[in-house]
Design brief:
By secondary structure, this protein is α/β, with parallel strands linked by helices. Helix content is 45%, strand content 14%.
Length: 327
């Protein structure tokens, strides 16, 4: 059974707007929340980047939906001992309904102190050690750690949830999928890639939850939706490792000049027809994901939630559930 959640975009909306969207999402029948964790937006048109831990605290007071960060980088900008404290507090606030999604990060967010940007293999090593540090602290015991990348001395968390915080690891390639299967309690991704899931499961992820998310743009016409999506999220169509290595929103804007409206139109469900939205959810369900998260691009959020509840969710429940898929 695939559970459908809503993806809160911290790059595109301020903290109060995100809280409002969480309320709307729950009323529209979404069952869980993703929330991005960024220091910068991808481009200046998006225009936001609130501190995710403050927003999660507010969300915990207005919604009962479980929340996952998608994703936090606990390695460079914030020491894993501090992320461990933030995640433990979030888990208490959310009454256990909090999952820490982690990944190796992007230079866009993590280079701000001027440190060299590590290679991808080194970032995976750092992530693995960071998870080890956080799990030790979530025991509530005093922790001292001297590793390859991190030192912790006489640290103890006094506010901890009854159970350790689940850690889901982000993966976009086979090496990261192997690490996710080996050290993660679950997997996060944005690709309907059954081979990636197979790699994750073969590496130790069999039976562990899997999450994935994608963007859409509902509007009164497909043409209007494409223009909005292209203006705000052309960066989504950049190839290769650019998303990991470009350091500023300005650089993403320059690279995104190569992305056309036609490229965006062919990549995203857009416009008033529920069909493409249904097809995309089915694509992720068929790949084998347990949880699928949807993000509406643009300012017309309340209209999207009405559209989803009235036009997409009923069809989705009937069509995909008949194939053994969605609740």
């Amino acid at each position: 059974m695939v559970s459908i959640g809503y993806f809160l975009s911290s790059e595109e909306h301020g903290p109060r707007e995100l809280v409002k969207q969480a309320r709307w999402a729950e009323r529209a029948g979404f069952e869980r929340l993703w929330i991005s964790d960024h220091y910068h937006p991808w481009n200046r048109e998006q225009g936001n980047s609130p501190f995710v831990w403050s927003v999660i605290g507010a969300l915990s007071e207005v919604t009962s939906l479980p929340i996952t960060t998608a994703v936090t980088c606990p390695t460079l900008r914030i020491h894993p001992a501090v992320v461990a404290q933030a995640a433990a507090t979030a888990a208490v606030q959310c009454r256990g309904g909090f999952t820490l999604g982690v990944g190796t990060g992007e230079a866009l967010n993590e280079h701000i102190f001027g440190d060299p940007w590590p290679s991808a293999p080194e970032r995976l090593e750092m992530l693995e050690e960071a998870v080890e540090v956080m799990r030790a602290l979530w025991t509530g015991e005093e922790v001292s750690h001297r590793g390859e990348h991190y030192t912790v001395e006489n640290a103890r968390l006094y506010t901890v949830p009854p159970s350790p915080v689940p850690v889901y690891v982000s993966a976009f390639g086979p090496k990261a999928a192997e690490v996710a299967g080996r050290i993660g309690d679950g997997l996060c991704s944005t690709m309907p890639d059954s081979a990636l899931l197979a790699k994750f499961r073969a590496a130790g992820g069999a039976g562990k939850p899997t999450q994935a998310g994608f963007k859409v743009c509902h509007a009164s016409s497909a043409e209007a939706a494409v223009k909005t999506a292209h203006r705000l999220w052309a960066n989504e169509q950049l190839p290769g490792e650019l998303a990991q290595v470009l350091p500023t929103p300005r650089h993403f804007e320059q690279a995104s000049e190569l992305v056309t409206e036609d490229m965006v139109a062919s990549a995203l469900p857009v416009g008033p027809d529920p069909g493409p939205y249904l097809d995309r959810v089915r694509e992720f369900a068929d790949a084998g994901y347990d949880e699928v998260y949807v993000n509406q691009i643009g300012p017309d959020q309340e209209r999207f939630f009405s559209f989803w509840a009235e036009s997409v969710a009923p069809e989705l429940t009937g069509a995909v559930a008949a194939r053994g898929g969605v609740r």
